Amino acid sequence: MGRRSGAVLSAVTMLVLSGCANVPPTEEARDPLEPVNRVIYTFNDKVDVYALKPLAQGYRKVVPAPVRRSVNHFFDNLWEPRTIVNDFLQGKFRQGAQDTLRFAFNTTAGIGGLFDVASAMDLPRHEEDFGQTFGRWGIGEGWYLVLPFLGPSTVRDTVGLFPDYALDPVSRHDEVRERNALYALRAVDRRAELLSASRIREEAALDPYLFTRESYRQHRWDRIWDGNPPPVEFD
């Protein structure tokens, strides 16, 4: 996507969001694109079943657990600058200072983030992104969307992907082959973490699409309010 088309998409989605301000998730999801979303969901599911999931299973079987943990810590550490920026944008100044120290210790003493030395120093990991920040600012979730390859999202969270991407060190890596290798390794690492969750969905859901949609919305609502959201009725 070029810069111009990205700017146009951002402008359009912000116009949609402007009509949804300060509205929490309700029992009825805004999903007017459900027929299209279901097609993309099916496509993503096929990619997962025939490519990503087998790779993740092989990765988990072949790569020793300590190595997998180091890979996971490495990619978590790369996201820390995004978390720090959003800490301060949400007014969480103490948490922002703690996360800054966490990033500094793990990048240096943790050898580029391969080892999580900060957690042992009472500096736990937090996850903040621009979608959460927009939610704390009172911007509603907007329509539910399923993005090709990326999966469930909302209009609000999709807009947040643009500044999230700008703060992603992998996206700014100049060597294309190395950048693509890092993207692939991160995707497989994340999928390996979700193997048990996907089994729960497959066993529990009568309609996996609806199960995924409502699970995603509840998860994001919980994340926006740091685990203590106001009560909301969900499907």
In short:
The chain has 235 residues and is mainly alpha-helical. The chain has helices spanning 3-18, 34-62, 65-78, 80-89, 93-108, 130-136, 155-166, 176-193, 195-204, 208-224; strands spanning 144-147, 151-154.
Q: Could you give the topology of this structure?
A:
Blueprint: H1 3-18, H2 34-62, H3 65-78, H4 80-89, H5 93-108, H6 130-136, E1 144-147, E2 151-154, H7 155-166, H8 176-193, H9 195-204, H10 208-224
Antiparallel strand pairs: 1-2
Describe the fold and architecture.
The protein has helices spanning 3-18, 34-62, 65-78, 80-89, 93-108, 130-136, 155-166, 176-193, 195-204, 208-224; strands at 144-147, 151-154. With 235 residues, it is mainly alpha-helical. The protein has one domain (27-222). The protein has a two-stranded antiparallel sheet with strand order 1-2. The longest helix has 29 residues, at 34-62. The protein is globular.
